[in-house]
Amino acid sequence: MVFLLLVLVFGILLTIPAVQTRIGQYATNEINIAYGTDITIEQASVTVFGGVKLKKVLVRDHHQDTLFFINRLKTNILDFNRLTNGDLLFGNIKADDLLFKLKQYKGEKDNNLDRFVAAFDDGSTSSGKFLMTAQTIELANSRFIMIDENIESKKILDFLNINAQVNNFKILGTSVTTAISNMNFKDFRGLQVTKLKTNFTYTKDNILLQKLDLATKASTLKADVAMRYNREDFSNFLNKVIFDVNVTSATITSNDIRYFYEELGENHTFQLKTNLLGTLNDFRTKNLNLVDNHDTKIIGDLHFKNIFGNEKQLFSLDGNFENLTSNYEDLAALLPNLLGKTLPTSLKKLGQFSVIGSTTVTTTTIDTDLFMSSSLGNLQADLVMSNIQNIDNATYKGKIILDNFNVGSMLNQKEVGYVSMNADVDGKGFTLKLIDTKFKGSVTKLQFMNYNYTGILVDGNFKKPIFKGKVNINDPNLFMEFDGLVDISKKENVYKFDTKIDYANLTALQLVKMDSVSIFKGKIYTNLVGNSLNNLYGDVLIEETSYQNPRDIYYFDNFKLNSSFDQIKNEP
How many whole angstroms separate alpha carbon 31 and alpha carbon 204? Predict the structure, then answer.
């Protein structure tokens, strides 16, 4: 009877909050003394069945800063006997207003969590490591902060308003594993994550998010994510910490990405699959398959450098494209401060284009070896361009092959139409005002003044827009050699050249429309101005010439012509 009375009295005492708090404080003090920790509990209550309620639990790190703070915690202890060994085995944990601050102090090898759990390591080989487990954990209105004092920005992660359900939580030594069945939070930059589900692992060497299923209001992502590092790498996070990401499917909006990278344009939505490997300042995307909502498609392998680089770390992009389909407006809007300032404005006239090949883009140069089809025609280019920060006046050197390409539309010249050519180019400028280009090659098709010229060899210079150089033409209706210049920059064209014409069918060339037959042969030295034979004026020296029309063939001695037009004034 006395024993039962003692048990009853002891049970009643345990229900008194003040007694429970004193017991909790006693137990906490014993842990602090035994392991050198700094843990305080403002209020505690324990049931005879192992239930525990704690209020205002504070765990300070070795610099007296907060490691953990929990406003309210409710759980049940599964094994009281193992508490004496420092093992914390819980059933279900519910925590409100949890703050977990993971901090790497400047100049220290281990972070504050490492130092805390190391206090429970007795050095034995059998177990000897801090152990905490929980069957489930429910978090409400919580926060996780990750800080590294060795880097300039210091704050790496800061997740606010965390609500989560996790299962099979385990801390063994400095390793943490758990299955997050559902989590939502707000990143300190402003991004609201509505769903996060993953198998989570944290060790001294890596962070793993396996079978990650993440969603925001506008984006979804399914992937396997790994961050691999040496602890000292966090002092140079952008250039040292390695990301290994396998994206199996994703729909991502650029507005979400802009919370982390403001250079990206607004209101783009991407369908994405890829394997990403590297640091944030040097990573590759392998087997990239990306489609956006503005008709851009990218299939291939890309290598990005220094997206987040400083003034000494210049941006570069290497691309090996199986298919790049886009248009000027979408590319310029996608990266307005990068591509928007480096793409030639003349590319607007290409419309929707598709590219196969490789390219390297830096802040000052573009090196391309690609084939492009567009609404203007087909183009193959092996070019190196520089001074692209002033892209309309950029320099370039290499080879260009045009296949039925509408050069006239590209250059806003109605007299010129479709061109097919294979030429070496060396010059600058992408507009008529700025173009100054040397080129040498063959032209298999040139639409000029409504006629398709073929069999042309060119070695000359085109500038503003003056052509100066040598041309040999072996066309069915024109056999000739040309050495001189043609200036079509003004209202009336200027022709200053020496030419030998073995055969010119002027009717077929649509230069003469009055006669059904109009054939010219001879040598011509000109200094003329005008847009057609009907309004040409200036000097012409003609040697060894003949002219055939429907009536006869006429042979001429050498002679000189001068053509002029008198101005007619209307008298009152």
Answer: 25
Tokens at residue 420, please?
């097919």
By 3-state DSSP, what share of the chain in percent is helix, strand and coil, each rounded to 5?
A: 15, 55, 30
Q: Which two tokens stand for residue 494?
A: 């200027």
C-alpha to C-alpha distance for 68 and 387, rounded to whole angstroms: 54
Please report which helix (H) or strand (E) contains residue 550, including its range.
none
CA 244 vs. chain centroid, Å, equals: 17
Token output for 109? 């090898």
CA distance 174 to 112: 11
Q: Measured between alpha carbons, how far is residue 77 from residues 119, 154, 213, 546 in Å? A: 21, 37, 32, 113
Residue 345 and residue 567: Cα distance in Å, rounded?
A: 42
Give the Cα separation of 169 and 176 in Å (integer): 8
261, 266, 267, 270: CA torsion to nearest 10? -40
Token pair recorded at residue 451: 């006629």
Cβ atoms within 10 Å, residue 126: 6
Residue 126: its pLDDT value, please? 40
Query: What are the per-10-residue average pLDDT scores of the chain (572 residues)?
Result: 31 44 60 74 71 83 90 78 67 91 86 78 52 89 88 83 93 87 94 95 90 95 92 75 94 91 86 93 92 89 84 83 89 76 75 92 88 93 86 87 91 86 90 83 91 93 83 94 84 87 92 87 89 80 89 86 60 44
pLDDT at residue 24, as a whole number: 58
* Contact present, 511 and 533 (Cβ < 8 Å): yes
DSSP 161-202: EEEEEEEEEEEETTEEEEEEEEEEEEETTS-EEEEEEEEEEE
**CB atoms closer than 10 angstroms to residue 155:** 11
Q: How far apart are CA 337 and CA 354, in angstroms?
A: 23
Instruction: For residues 327 and 54, give the distance between their C-alpha atoms in angstroms, rounded to a whole number.
Output: 61
Beta strand residue intervals within 449-536, DSSP E? 451-453, 456-463, 466-475, 478-487, 494-505, 519-529
Q: Are 525 and 561 in contact (CB under 8 A)?
A: no
What per-residue confidence (pLDDT) applies to 476? Answer: 95
| Nearest by Cα to 61 from 92, 100, 12, 10 | 100
Q: At what angle do helices 17-35 and 2-14 cross, to 10 degrees?
A: 80
| 443-474: b (≥16 Cβ within 10 Å) or e | bbbbbbeeeebebbebebbbbebbbbbebbbe
- Residue 91: DSSP 8-state: E
Q: Which of 567, 500, 498 is nearest to 527 (CA)?
A: 498
**pLDDT at residue number 81:** 62
**Position of tokens 């969603």?**
215
Retrieve residue 534's tokens: 């009907």
Q: What span, in angstroms and rounded, lies between the C-alpha atoms of 459 and 473?
A: 12
Sign of CA dihedral 82, 85, 90, 95: positive
Tell me the two tokens of residue 509: 């060339």
Distance, in Å, from the CA atom of 138 to the CA atom of 91, rounded to the nearest integer, reads 12
pLDDT of residue 441: 94
